[in-house]
Predict the 3D structure of the following.
Amino acid sequence: MPDVQTLAPSPTPDTRDSWALRLHLQRRSIGNALWTCESWSLLAVDSDRDRTDPRRPTRTALRRDPDSGDEIHVWDGLGLTLHRDERAAYRFNLSSRTPRLFVHCEADDGGTMVPTLVTASQDVAAAYMDGGDEDVFSCPMPSAVQCWIEAFIARHGEPEIALGKSRRRQRGKRHKDADDHG
């Protein structure tokens, strides 16, 4: 598992930089007569803005899907916290066709996936996935959260995106050519 200290900055966030969320995780049994295993997925993320203190996740509901019989676990108490040094990753995510939220989970002793982190940064999600046995799920980002992240970026400034070496060379060449013709 990646060192959490390197992934999430430690300063206490401003309350307007955190958004309480409700997560819906689905547990599905798959297999045949000889074997069965469980598959987990993130169905949805809803706003839980009425909660002012996202602390630790608490499973608030467990229900069965009437059609499939799958278990739906509803978790409250986890928030999306934005960090200034992740603005470039947020911008990259927002510019994609379908912006996504990423949820890192760990299995408890009973095999239930317990969410531990919600992020809008693909870089943070990838760092957890590179750890090997980590479970990271994603789902489309709600429109209200997209607008909130846009406001965060506007409030703290657009991120500077580093150009690759070849693009820097091309940019320098264009400026040089402009000087020669003018």
In short: Residues 4-180 form one domain.
